[in-house]
Amino acid sequence: MTTPAPPSSLIKGLVEISIPESVPWIPQTIGWWILIGILLLVVSWKIYGLVKLYIHNRYRREALEALRLIDCDNPAQACAALFSVIKRVTVHLIDKSAPYEGKALLNVIQTTLPTANNGESVAVIDPELFQRFSASLWLPDENCLLTPIQVDALKKQCVIWLKTHQRPE
To answer: pTM higher than 0.70, yes or no?
Structure first.
């Protein structure tokens, strides 16, 4: 058996390993720069679309806030305020709808509703309730045809309409 050599003689023949250069984080080939450019364009386009949609739907947010502030305890005042909001939104959607009221205004609202698979619009606002609402607008406050519960129901239907309506084409 041989005796082991002292430790200092074991490392005399070893060569130190060289450490390779670190890999850069910045891409060095043109393909990666093109891919980064395309991704930046796509992200910018999406952000632009979202900002445009946010600005475009400003009228919805304002109308929903106005509906939220309507107090249904006084039906006559609530009907007047509700009519004002509905009228502003319909005129914003269709300029020609300014003189409409009653059944004609309800038809304008119906044309802006999304359509079901069979091509018919989804009914959101109860026509009978809307007719009573339209008739109440021209009566004195004490002769309002709607109760606070009915005004609240119409208000909720208008909120659904505001959230789901589409611009007519």
So the answer is: yes
